[in-house]
Amino acid sequence: MHASLHFTTTNTPPSSSTLRKNPIQITRSPTTQITCKILINPSKKTLPQKTQKPLWPPLPPPNTKPLLPQVNPIKPNIHQPHLNPLQKLAASLLNTIETSLIEPLEKKQSLPKTIDPSVQISGNFAPVRECPVQNSLEVVGQIPDCLRGVYVRNGANPMFEPAGGHHLFDGDGMIHALTLGSANRASYSCRYTRTSRLEQEAKMGRSIFPKPIGELHGHSGLARLCLFMARAAIGLVDVSCGTGVANAGLVYFNGRLLAMSEDDLPYNVKIKGDGDLETIGRFDFNGGLDRPVIAHPKVDPVTGELHVLSYDVVKKPYLKYFKFGASGTKSRDVDITLDQPTMVHDFAITQNYVVIPDQQVVFKLSEMIKGGSPVIYDPNKTSRFGILPRNNVDELGIQWIDVPNCFCFHLCNAWEETSEVGDPIIVVIGSCMDPPDSVFNEHKNNPIRAELTEMRMNLRTQESTRRVLVPGLNLEVGQVNKEVVGQKNRYVYMAIAEPWPKCSGIAKVDLETGSVTKHLYGTGRFGGEPFYVPKRKNDSMGNQVEEDDDGFIMGFVRDEVDERSELVILKASSMKQVGLVRLPARVPYGFHGTFISEQDLKEQA
Q1: Which of 28, 306, 384, 413 has the greatest number of CB atoms lying within 10 Å of its CB?
Q2: What's residue 582's pLDDT?
Q3: What is the pTM (predicted TM-score) of this model?
Q4: Binding site annotation covers 219?
């Protein structure tokens, strides 16, 4: 959520934490030793004129091939010989405008921390190179049998050094994959998702697509946008295949792993038999999808449907809802009427409803003319949730219920209840963030708070209540058992986002008792989003059943003191570590992940 611009790599593979008084238990990871050494090596690579240096070292580790050519070879081609004389003249003119007008304007600007590259991509937020499959990783403890498959996690990994402002969310998408097998076998790889944007920039040897958050600020942002539109108009860049970075969400649906961001269609990434990753391409659901989707679609564990939202920051309708059946067939779009374009990063489903947040962080492009960011907090707007029946073909049945002073960047789950007097209630669990726009805009004297909160909305009275479940502790990117999405659950597994934006551990929150059990990674050790994998078991009738915490939690952890990266595995019921995999390369802090079982891997499309 996220000095010199450098990164670390490994040159050799390894040798083999109720409302009132909450009881809190704490466990800590044991300290371990590792023999491999991390080298820090700023890039010195020289590129042709008007190119930028990639953010990786000039030489690969021993016994590996060069970075980009491993999948779909790309060679920098800044001169673009396919252009006709008129295009070449226009390209030269636009390059001159960029270097003589736009770049000097950007250099005069004082960058806030939220878009300062020296902050946003420093330390373990800095990018890394691709890593081919590394086998026979060292395992400490035991990998549980139910974890046979692949844990994949997405993140932002900019290929080129930013010329101006850069937000963590602007980076190119990279997926880190850890394959877990029988007999404690583990292997690791990481690859860029080969978006249209990435491939075009790699061919040109420079960053050319504008960064939506980092660069599109004020007058220089307007100039950047106009420059890009001019380049697209004369055929210097191709926008017909999207402009997204596919760096945020991951969902496995209908035999496909989909990498997602807010600004494009998803990208289908295949997990190969050896654990490597291959981008198949931009996925439009066989012609059914023609617009960007948000990074957090919801898979209904009962029906197998994939529920999706799509927002537009320029034209009405600003929001649409649709779903895909278990076989991938798309429903008709339901247009959702909003007064202004609004950031909708996440939403929730219940058995019968879709729960749609309409909150106070909005898009206002006119702010750029005033010299500001187009992503702003609107204090005159009242946050609300729309409760839409899942099978509606239009928005006529939606109920909007105000939930004042509420901004949830991420929602954990939602379900339906009945009050003591028989009123239908929608319960939503999510992290309420304050200041609401603190991810995008700097608030020097107002530290960020992200508190796990319960919101209850009465569908008869249209009244709401809001209750902080764990006061005084920053908890974000929460997970529940995916088998109970849309149903009442007992436990939520949260990243302890302290010191912000790093995550120092995992908190298991019992929604029934209010108790909080923490697992802290230890001094100088930080992770990210935890992911819960259920441990399936059979009842006396042979049916698969499980408790809400009868499974395992996993996530990548970086030891900033000893300079090593690991996968940590916890038993959810005790919050004790049962296994650890030492990784052969640095894994930066990232965004969201998922686990794909061995069986699901066999059924990839």
Answers
A1: 413
A2: 98
A3: 0.87
A4: no
